[in-house]
Amino acid sequence: MSSKVSPLHARVLRPESHLIENEPYYEPIGEEIQLLEAAYASQVPVLLKGPTGCGKTRFMEYVAWRLKRPLVTVSCHDDLTAADLVGRYLITGTETVWVDGPLARAVRAGAICYLDEVVEARKDTTVVIHPLADDRRMLPMEKRGEVLQAPKEFALVISYNPGYQSVLKDLKQSTRQRFVAIEFSYPGPAIEQKIIVTETGLDAPAAEKLVQLARMTRNLKGNGLDEGASTRLLVHAGKLIGRGIAPSVACHGTIAEALTDDPEMLRAVDELASALF
Amino acid sequence: MSSPPPSSDPRPGAAAADPLSAAEIEERLDELLDAVLSTRRTATGLARDIAVLARSEQEFVLHWTGVVARTNPEMAYQFSAAAPRALARLDPAAAEAWVIQAMDTYDREGLYRGSAVLKDVAEFAELAGAAASTATFEESAQVLQLFLCGLSGRRMRLDTAAHAYTDTETIYLPPRLALLPGKAENFLIYKATAALAWAQVRYGTFNVDLLPALNACSDPKRALTLFNFLETVRLEARIALALPGLARGMRQLRAAQGATDPRLARLTDPAATAEDSLAVLKEYHAEFTPPRYCYMGELHWDEAMAVRSARIARERVLLRSALARALEGEDPQRARAESAARFSLAEAGSDAAAGIELRLDGEPLALPENVGQLLESIVQDLGEIPDDYLVAAGDGGYRASVRGENDPADVWKGVYHEEGAFLYNEWDCRRRHYRKNWCVLRELDVHPGSPHFVDATLAKYAPQVAQLKRTFEMLRGEDRLLKGQPDGNDIDLDAVIAAYADVRSGMELSERLLTRRHRAERDLAVMFMVDMSGSTKGWVNDAEREALVMLAEALEVLGDRYAIYGFSGITRKRCEIFRVKRFDEPYDELVRSRIAGITPQDYTRMGAAIRHLTAVLNHVEARTKLLITLSDGKPDDYSDHYRGEYGIEDTRQALIEAHRSGVKPFCITIDREARDYLPHLYGPVNWTLVDEVARLPLKVADIYRRLTA
Hints:
The complex is a heterodimer of chains A (277) and B (709).
Chain A: H1 32-41, E1 46-49, H2 56-67, E2 71-75, H3 82-86, E3 87-92, E4 95-100, H4 102-109, E5 112-116, H5 125-133, E6 138-141, E7 146-149, E8 155-160, H6 173-176, E9 180-183, H7 189-200, H8 204-219, H9 231-242, H10 247-259, H11 263-276
Parallel strand pairs in A: 1-8, 1-9, 2-5, 5-8
Antiparallel strand pairs in A: 3-4, 6-7
Helix pairs in contact in A: 7-8, 7-9, 8-9, 8-11, 9-10, 10-11
Chain B: H1 22-32, H2 44-51, H3 55-71, H4 73-89, H5 92-109, H6 111-119, H7 121-129, E1 135-136, H8 137-150, E2 157-160, E3 165-166, E4 170-173, E5 176-177, H9 183-202, H10 210-216, H11 220-242, H12 244-253, H13 274-284, H14 301-330, H15 332-335, E6 343-347, E7 356-360, E8 363-364, H16 369-382, H17 397-403, E9 422-428, E10 433-445, H18 452-460, H19 462-475, E11 479-485, E12 490-491, H20 493-504, E13 514-519, E14 524-531, H21 539-558, E15 561-569, E16 575-581, H22 589-596, H23 606-617, E17 624-631, H24 645-660, E18 663-669, H25 678-682, E19 687-689, H26 696-708
Parallel strand pairs in B: 2-4, 10-16, 14-15, 14-17, 17-18, 18-19
Antiparallel strand pairs in B: 1-5, 3-4, 6-7, 7-8, 9-10, 11-13, 12-13, 15-16
Helix pairs in contact in B: 1-2, 1-3, 3-4, 4-5, 4-6, 5-6, 8-9, 9-11, 9-12, 11-12, 11-13, 14-16, 19-21, 19-26, 21-26, 23-24
């Protein structure tokens, strides 16, 4: 008899109506939770700044859970247009049918809309973000000749990484001055160690070494690395080590190879890891 | 002399031929070594030794004698004297490596060191035998540099020296290590040596007053060695805390020497300082013989002290002027009035450098990264930031004196030195190897010329400029609305209507019903490298400048990123690159007057210029990178044989390097003889000849259009 793989069923979720059920693990670094909640209460949009993997997305999940609002996340890319956010007409049979984009759905549902890496999106997206981000709180739907008025539960949050974007993709003043900005950076050693321990179940000394390795790679930023190792990479490394992979192998796979393709830089990161473990 | 045979296989088939006689060899040597032979020093003895070799070996010796003689006849003499012994011990490939190493040493350190390598065949043979397991500085330096950069503390440089030591800013390592049987083990020695030197600087070895203690001992030299060992014991304990993996490696390396003496236990305490080592030194210097670990360097105390005190003085000035700048930023009015005692220090959170936070009037002050490093470096030297450092140095007079250091224009005013310059390798086709850091290149600004030149050119070619602009406009990528697309942003109504009709008539519904905006982007960066050699004097120079004006006008329409640099120079120690327009500069009055100011200079050592401009071009993000050379002839330089084959081969090698790094080279020339050498340099198609200089201004823009369309 031929063996069969029993089908697995992934849960189908609609982000605008789905509430995060379990409390996501989040370790506050400063006053960011109070700041975001105050901004939310005042219906002011928020801009999260910070390098990749420092916890911006996790922070949003945590806040959405606290506020008990659905979270609609859109990862922006360089082909993302205003129509992708607002919605478009599709043709079904011989009829045209309007389909809301994620931003429109979030506005209707009073959800938190999180536009990740917003500078990657096309310039015309700012046209729809601007009226939403000031006191009008309106989403123009040009094609339908309508304007959506956002309910007070709706919130707009965008993120951006000031570190690596090119000059061509800077956030315009007219956009950034509409937002309350919260800056994220990598957490201090004690907190970062705690995060690794909590996320991976690794013991404290091993987590401390991972934190030290991260510091070392962050020293290399600008000397051949575009970014140092993020907290996320450390968590990945920690998970592999927890499953019995030798630390040097785990660090090579999760940290060195993730940071660079340059053979000498790879070797240097490996040497740093082997000096620690 | 006929062209030299390929060096790796001297004259194929010659091995079978009969050996040359001593007389024949002497005749050839007389010719090659003419400059260093005299009545007292003849080639007879050399010829006698070479005559006993096989024919292929004889040819090897004569060929390389010729090659070396072109660099230095005395070296050639030393080579032909040492060669028979060398060939007895080395195979041909190793013998070639031996010559190349000797020539590299000569290039770098002069005749004395160079001939030392030639004489010491035995040492080379030993190293060559161990080559497979040898770790060399050249291979390891890049990785070690990054490794050190990753560790905390002052940024250390790496360099080579005969023995390992540090002067507190640079770590010197031996050029090669072959102490252990495996390459990985030898690399580990490198790593341990570098880390130990780093630890000396990081953990305060140089912060004690050593000399009185040494002089109190009966044998100061021995005492210094002992102190070095005691510090090694102390620092290894520190390394074991910070870098346990490395410390394990170090223990393995010295496993054969047995355990550490129990009397030294107090040094392994984490709180131990260099003072403790000094105390142990005083106690035991008479009775203790230190072992030597393979990764221990030497202590060059005087050199380290000199560098350290120069740095302490410099960093005090730097910090105070940085504080002055920070103060100006805070409140310009009060900055000068009273600057004393407003700065203070506090133990900072974990993120700040060296655990120190700088406060102004009790408020934390955000510091630029370099100031953070400065604070860290000062703390490493002094253990703290002394109060008198925290006074802003008012008038900024210090700043000028600190900044002026690296101005390339100043380099030639005083005695010769290489500060502030770029160093590039050069390909020596006769040695078939690079000469390391052979060319000294500087970037200079073009002295602006009369702005009337540009206006006159534009007036002269007014009709052509207008047409050129129109042609280039057509080339520009525009936003286009693509209709009938399978995916897009909006509905293509025409297509929908047609599809509706199709469906009603029983045909299948088309999928192509949407419109999409499409922008054809020209992701292109182009570097123009303009010949400013003396031979362009006169109308060639005028034509070049006119061509650049036309080109710039056209490129402004097109929106491509472009830069213009001129190149010239005289000898390898003075290659010059003239900035006319950098990539990030707009095409403005200044650039126009710089184009007008392009004047013929000296020679054309093209290799270094290509290498430098390729590096500049590679800093730009673009899908396509073009390096276009405007030239009037072959590469050439004053003296040192650059003219001819050597220069052409070096240029070719530089172009191959450029190509390999993703830059596309192209050449526009007015040299009618270009067909003889340009295909060899640029390949069959990547060059073009404009045989009428007067047409150059019109042609260049046209060639560019064809090239990028």
